[in-house]
Write a structure and sequence with these properties.
The complex is a heterodimer of chains A (about 60) and B (about 180).
Chain A lengths: L11 H10 L8 H12 L10 E4 L8
Chain B lengths: L8 E5 L4 H12 L3 E6 L2 H9 L5 E5 L5 H15 L4 E4 L15 H29 L2 E6 L12 H21 L4 E8 L1
Parallel strand pairs in B: 1-2, 1-4, 2-3, 4-5, 5-6
Amino acid sequence: MPTPILGTDLAHTELEEFAQRTPVERLAEPEEIVNTMLLLLSERNSYMNGQAIAIDGGVTVSA
Amino acid sequence: MNQEFAGKVILITGAASGFGRLLAEHLSASGARLVLGDLNESGLAEVASALPAECVWQACDVSVESQVQSLCHSAEERFGRLDIAVNNAGIATPAKPLTELSEAEFDLNIAVNAKSVFLGLKHQIPMMLKQGGGVILNTASLAGLVADPDISAYVAAKHACVGLTKAAAIEFGASNIRVNAICPF
């Protein structure tokens, strides 16, 4: 499943280019995104409000 | 099995595929009662029929207020409450330079990726206010935080999604409603 920033139907080579932009050198597995969604929905996450959480393998903090 | 969501009433849009589908499968396996919407009615029917827990589903174009309202009404009618809402449905149009983007493509991005979130919040929050609280999660994108070339309308719409998340969070935080967004790459 291509992640939302990528749009749909990207060729394998394009996906590989995106993967290489991440400090972890791979794209997310869908499960990794959904696991974060479950964390955010949890009652144990009771004090987080109004946040937009990047799940990006570190893309936005790399120079 | 994660019992935390057992019995909770959880609405998910864009549930026929992608993150929405996967999330629905996880939550249903945990015993959550689901209210699912998607533009793809046959795909949604297929997903819903395979879920282990109780669920109600219907075709829903999230950019049309009457359809979003109807989906929320289904939660009320079937389960009498709404504990969690996940405004997850979205669209990506083909990448192209801003100068080549049509007005229709721009409008479609705004309608499905931004207006839909407004409509969801508008109709989900009153139900949560009535019952004393709730949780809302919006599926934005890393394009809601930073820009990438050739997806300007998507960037604009996802920034709007993040803006709506913040606006709703501060308006209704005191009413025990949390609103957050995810921004996947």
